[in-house]
Amino acid sequence: MIKKPNSVKDVAIHLVAVLALGVGLIMLFFYVYLPNATSKDETVTVPNLTGFHIDDIDNHLTDRNLIFEVTADSGYSADQAPLTVLQQYPKALSKVKEQRKIYITLNAEKPPKVRMPKLVEGSLKSAQIQLKALGLEIGKREYVPHWAFGLVLKQSYNGNEIEEGELIYKGSKIDLVIGDSNSKIDFPAPDVIGQIYDEAVFEIEGYNLKVGVVLEETEEVEEDLPPGTITRQTPGSDEHVRSGDVIDLWVKDYEEYLKTRSDSAQASNLTANEL
Q1: pTM for this one?
Q2: Domain check: are 133 and 196 in the same one?
Q3: I need a labelling partner for 174 at 20 to 30 A (CA). Which of 109, 193, 211, 260 fits?
């Protein structure tokens, strides 16, 4: 069978089809394949997200074609607002590929709680170290006369004494009362009337004061008071003193008290020797 030669119309149709196919392939190469192939090697710079609230993070990542994920563990910083970024990975200014996931750690909405340590009877330096380790801070410092300089005498929170072991939020401020053996501030003299002599001496010396003249009480006092009871003092509790001042004492049956105390001490020594 003899094949008829193609007409001019058929040739033109074939040429148009070939040209259309060629143009389509060229467009696919330049607009689809080439961008995808070259984008594999493109990188973007990770922005610094630290301090930004979680609601504002998308604004900093979307235009860079990055995404983020919040880690399960949260941290806490008293210097940052709740739900703000504390840490991120990869770090800021790192070079990553598009669609890379940025992992962020958020500041907790409420600070965690820690147990209050015992600061009383320890040094101020020790208190500073313990509080810092637990994420607590020293608030007000009140210095009072005491024979031990820098000794913590009281610990309180929001105006109330706080005991060892109580739960308290991180970042809380603990107020301290601290001994100051060099204090030159006037303060009321301790009231030791009614105390036994040795107890009175202990309290007086605890205020970094000294016992001055000790006298036998010659005036009439209650008969049922035991020997060694303080009946008068100078300065009195209504007067002010300074660290290092002396307090004179009047003691009921002072000589009898000293003899009784001496006899008790000798008896104790004899018992100890026998053992």
Answers
A1: 0.51
A2: no
A3: 109
